[in-house]
Amino acid sequence: MFLQRLYAPGSGLARASAPSFRVDDRSKPIEDTRDGAVSFEFASDEQHGVSAAAQADFVAAFARERASLAAWCERAGWQPRLIPALRVVVAAKYKISRALVPAWEGRPGLIEFPARRVGTGTAAIAHELTHVYFPNGNRLLAEGFAIYLQSVLGGNPAFPNFGKPLHEVACDRLGEMVPGFAARDTTALRAIDLAALDAIPTPNPLMLAAAQQAYAEEHRGQGALYAIAGSFVQFLIEAGGLEKFRALYEATPLIDGAVEAGSGERWRAVYAAPLGALATQWKSLLAGVRPIGAACQ
Hints:
- The protein is of the alpha/beta class.
- It has 13 helices and six strands.
- The protein starts with 29 loop residues before the first strand and ends with a helix.
- Mean pLDDT is 86; it is low at 1-8, 14-36 and 291-297.
């Protein structure tokens, strides 16, 4: 077992007053600015803090990304979850950005960003806003959708593709995970089991065993699995349409404290095909993205 801290199974972008969440930060004071329904907190740390200029840039970028997501919701006719207020906390102690797991814990609207990401302009703002307004109980779909919207709406490069096309990045990562794919053997992608990823509920992190290697919470593992998730969701939306994807997505709503990734039968109910057939189509698509040798070596 290579994963710890697992849990076992058992609307509008509204304006409101500031939330009442507490962040446990006993070591450093917090500086706080407010922007309507959003509060921004930057941990004071002379060595790892975010400069005043970077803070201002981040606050402005956050407002732009939030407006961009609101416009997308209107165009798509997809009503987001109603969140009274957002609390955005930036601190060096955070190693990754988080909004989905706090929502699962009963703290919707709390978003944590690592100071290094904010300082370098690589914070995945659209990604985390997607988790706030469209949380999901299936981790593959939750992350895949957030990565997809970051790629189409995000105004800055961010993990895991940093502005590069998702399918190309997924191809690169798959070539590293499955050497046979890099050697032009598309059948090698049988080692990538999307059903295993689909069985992972929020709040558990994505993990996968492939080609005798374990991919889990470490940066290498999440970099590969997030690229796969984003690419697969892009395929679902572009090939099957947003309406079908929405039906699939809404079949696994996030429920506070619940651990349920959804039945495999929901794929057939929405797409009239099992997940395995859709995965095969996605893998075939990736094989044609670029010449395999050039794309994945």
